[in-house]
User: Which sequence fits this backbone?
């Protein structure tokens, strides 16, 4: 008993000593982190910039964080002030109306850190946003240090590894654009540490909860974490147990399967309702371009870019140069560290072949957004090699020298690789490696090597930060000015709509106001714009049917001023900038209000015959017949009969009055028509379509089967011109050709469409672009005019080959629009109220009719007519409908996030299973002590 007591006291003293040293470690880590973070922040601050990226940061990330704070405060208010429990699940202010959880999970919901937004006033969200960027990076370093200490690595090595891990290209570049991109860096070390604990037959709590929180936080990165978790478990198994029987493999496989399933079950409350809608999006289903290899330039720059420039397809490695020295030392150690070597080779193979980026990105477009895992490997290699720096043999030093020379030659030999950033990074690598090789000969004090290595490490980090945000790179220009990000979401467009004072439920549309998408979430208006990574598949399907002029399936700004589509969407106001009234659709001719923002005047025009949010049809069109109609016929049909699979109301036979007009194509300089293709050899080359349009019409340019392929510098030169060039001129073109990237240059192209006073753009995304959704048919509305249009001018921004199956000009008369709209709106839903994801209203119909409610259809809606549960049908592809009998009716429609109840039940099961695991572990521990 006395011996046991002495052992316990010895262990306690050892733990106190370790804890004290760890405290010193974290103090130093925190101080150094703050200094480096300050250096990075000052790159923004001294240039008057915030850390909010203008493109996605304002409409998505900052907007979501601000909204989430108000959302959480609203829930707490209902609990503690109104003494009721209500969690809003659906909001009309998000796009056409969206599920809150599935839309915002990708950005805020599920991430534990964003819960801090509940304490932050909306006006201070930008401060919280910037604080969370650095907090995530800081916590990633803490998590990595815990992993290193668990494996009994020294504090010096761990500190340097932390710096390599948290200040690589991924955080310097990607995490500034997308703050939550740092989250997997927090979870990965903890999950891997949890795996090691299970192999050592320790308690599995860390593994279960780190996997569960990762699943709650982001389904996107959870998928990647799952792949690396499996790979790590396999590598560690063979490292610890070698080749064993299938029985042993099966045993460990079942252990990890049980704990993983429990973790996934715990996360199911968010994971299940979020993942299932993703499978229905065009972006997920699109067949993207996945070549066998990257472009030649990618491989020429590959080695230098590991410690220097950013690579394409999110290959932002940018590790501090010293980390590569650790890799040299690793491979100089023969017959040691086989697992680390295998991991290093495997992960580099992932970067060398596009298919790996395709698989790791969920079998979607090629993207190396998993490179943060490479960062952890590089950092841990250095941690393990750090003690080896002090005891290298002469033979090992010679091997390292050979590696260094080989790397420098291969990294800098190609012209494309010799950029300023890459040259300086390689210089730092040379200095750091020579410092390591000099130890024991030039100097012998371990402290000097530690300080010099640490100095080169920090220098590499600071240089990468400085160059990434240099004026030469001009990356800072993509970020919003300080204090202006949230103000941008209070757009002049929304202010003009709010000034109408209209408190009814309606939508507004706009054109040419350059407003930020999702601004309605801040202002409380209802718009036709949306920009989030997960979108309703039914809305996308509708846009595909009517060939809306946008290539995105999750990013839409407006309905292209198409009168019929605006009427069907209950658009009451249309906003344009003063002086740009030519963008107004037919019927929006009454100035209702105007507002000024940043010296620009925005005008909201009202349509006196706009449809309300709920309107009725007395006949229907079967879906099969509707599917056979042309694009222009479909939109006309939607004003005459509701599109349903089947219905009790009579079937209608729609009448069409559109007319296709013949045109003459006149090509300008740098533009040539050949075999149904337009070959553009000069930027901004033009072609004109000349025709006789009809009066009082919207005039459409319809392109079907549009595709684009870029031309290399050599392909831009005709054979005749090539033969006249001197040898030097030909060599120069061939040199430019060698640096040209087919994949990069063939991703997208733009065609400006101009008529009288009007300017629009057709955006073409090819299967090589990450936002490709498979859309290739576009209807560009060149606007309404009382007198027939005579021409349309196409300006091609990009050189290349523009192919198409068909291109036509169609005139859509407006003469029947008002009567058809009035017919739908005569008997409509009255006294409409939308509150707490519930819609209520009343209606009186003179005969059996179909009530269409212009909200996006979802299985989460449940309808009650006069208190009786009633089938809610999908109508007109994207909307929903109720079949009503003659008479007066009270309508109530409620919403509950699909699969949320199932997910919640699975989470409860997961927690019960976890409790069982805890009880079993305690029982086993008690038996051992006995």
Assistant:
């Amino acid at each position: 008993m006395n011996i046991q007591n002495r052992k316990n006291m010895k262990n306690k003293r050892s733990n106190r000593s370790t804890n004290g040293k760890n405290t010193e470690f974290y103090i130093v880590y925190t101080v150094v982190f703050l200094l480096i973070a300050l250096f990075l922040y000052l790159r923004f601050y001294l240039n008057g910039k915030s850390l909010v990226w203008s493109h996605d940061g304002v409409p998505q990330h900052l907007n979501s964080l601000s909204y989430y704070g108000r959302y959480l405060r609203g829930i707490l208010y209902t609990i503690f002030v109104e003494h009721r429990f209500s969690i809003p699940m659906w909001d009309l202010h998000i796009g056409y109306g969206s599920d809150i959880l599935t839309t915002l999970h990708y950005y805020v919901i599920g991430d534990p850190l964003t819960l801090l937004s509940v304490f932050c006033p909306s006006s201070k969200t930008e401060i919280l946003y910037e604080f969370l960027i650095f907090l995530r990076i800081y916590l990633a370093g803490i998590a990595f240090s815990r992993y290193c200490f668990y494996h009994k690595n020294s504090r010096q090595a761990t500190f340097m590894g932390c710096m390599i891990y948290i200040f690589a290209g991924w955080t310097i570049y990607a995490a500034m654009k997308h703050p939550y991109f740092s989250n997997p860096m927090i979870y990965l070390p903890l999950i891997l540490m949890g795996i090691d604990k299970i192999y050592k037959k320790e308690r599995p709590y860390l593994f279960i909860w780190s996997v569960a929180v990762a699943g709650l936080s982001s389904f996107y990165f959870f998928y990647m974490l799952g792949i690396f978790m499996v790979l790590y478990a396999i590598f560690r198994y063979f490292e610890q147990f070698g080749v064993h029987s299938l029985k042993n493999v099966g045993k460990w496989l079942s252990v990890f399967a049980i704990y993983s399933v429990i973790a996934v079950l715990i996360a199911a409350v968010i994971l299940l309702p979020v993942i299932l809608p993703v499978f229905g999006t065009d972006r997920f289903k699109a067949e993207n371009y996945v070549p066998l290899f990257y472009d030649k330039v990618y491989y020429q720059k590959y080695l230098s870019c590991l410690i220097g420039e950013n690579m394409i397809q999110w290959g932002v490695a940018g590790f501090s140069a010293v980390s590569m020295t650790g890799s040299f030392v690793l491979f100089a150690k023969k017959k040691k560290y086989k697992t680390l070597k295998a991991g290093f080779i495997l992960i580099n193979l992932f970067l060398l072949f596009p298919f790996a980026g395709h698989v790791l990105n969920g079998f979607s477009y090629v993207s190396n957004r998993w490179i943060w895992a490479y960062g952890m490997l590089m950092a841990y290699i250095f941690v393990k090699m750090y003690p080896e720096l002090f005891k290298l043999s002469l033979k090992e030093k010679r091997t390292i020298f050979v590696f260094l020379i080989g790397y420098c030659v291969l990294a800098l030999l190609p012209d494309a690789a010799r950029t300023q950033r890459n040259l300086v990074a390689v210089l730092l690598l040379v200095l750091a490696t020579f410092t390591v090789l000099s130890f024991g000969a030039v100097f012998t004090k371990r402290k000097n090597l530690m300080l010099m290595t640490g100095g080169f490490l920090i220098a590499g980090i600071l240089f990468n930060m400085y160059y990434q945000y240099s004026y030469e790179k001009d990356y800072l220009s993509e970020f919003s000015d300080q204090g202006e990000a949230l103000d941008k979401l209070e757009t002049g467009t929304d202010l003009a709509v709010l000034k109408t004072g209209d408190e009814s439920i309606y939508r507004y549309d706009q054109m040419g106001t350059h407003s930020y998408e999702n601004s309605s979430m801040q202002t409380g208006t209802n718009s036709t714009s949306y920009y989030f990574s997960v979108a309703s598949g039914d809305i996308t399907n509708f846009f595909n049917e009517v060939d809306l002029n946008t290539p995105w399936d999750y990013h839409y700004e407006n309905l292209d001023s198409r009168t019929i589509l605006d009427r069907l969407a209950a658009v009451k106001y249309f906003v344009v900038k003063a002086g740009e009234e030519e963008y107004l659709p037919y019927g929006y001719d009454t100035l209702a209000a105007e507002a000024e923002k940043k010296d620009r005047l925005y005008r909201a025009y009202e349509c006196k015959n706009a449809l309300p949010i709920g309107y009725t049809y007395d006949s229907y069109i079967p879906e099969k017949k509707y599917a056979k109609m042309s694009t222009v016929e479909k939109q006309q049909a939607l004003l005459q009969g509701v599109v349903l699979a089947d219905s009790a109301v009579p079937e209608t036979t729609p009448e069409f009055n559109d007319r296709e007009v013949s045109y003459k194509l006149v090509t300008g300089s740098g533009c040539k028509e050949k075999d149904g293709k337009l070959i553009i050899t000069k930027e901004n080359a033009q072609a004109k379509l000349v025709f006789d349009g009809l009066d009082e019409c919207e005039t459409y340019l319809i392109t079907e089967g549009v595709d684009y392929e870029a031309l290399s510098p050599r392909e831009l030169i005709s054979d005749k011109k090539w033969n006249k060039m001197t040898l030097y001129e030909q060599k120069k073109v061939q040199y430019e050709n060698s640096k040209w990237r087919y994949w990069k240059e063939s991703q997208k192209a733009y065609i400006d469409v101009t008529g009288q006073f009007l300017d629009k753009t057709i955006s073409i995304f090819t299967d090589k672009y990450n936002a490709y959704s498979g859309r290739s048919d576009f209807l560009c509305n060149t606007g309404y005019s009382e007198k027939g249009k005579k021409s349309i001018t196409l300006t091609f921004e990009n050189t290349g080959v523009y192919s198409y199956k068909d291109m036509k000009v169609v005139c859509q008369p407006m003469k029947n629009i008002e009567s058809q709209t009035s017919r739908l709106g005569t008997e409509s839903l009255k006294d409409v109220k939308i509150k707490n994801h519930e819609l209520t209203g009343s209606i009186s119909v003179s005969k059996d009719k179909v009530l269409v409610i212009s909200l996006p259809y979802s299985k989460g809606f449940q309808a009650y007519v006069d208190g009786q549960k009633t089938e809610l049908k999908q109508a007109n592809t994207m909307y929903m409908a109720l079949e009503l009998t003659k008479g007066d009716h009270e309508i109530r429609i409620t919403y509950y996030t699909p699969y949320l109840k199932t997910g919640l039940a699975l989470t409860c099961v997961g927690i019960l299973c976890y409790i069982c695991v805890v009880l079993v572990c305690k029982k086993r521990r008690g038996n051992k002590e006995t």
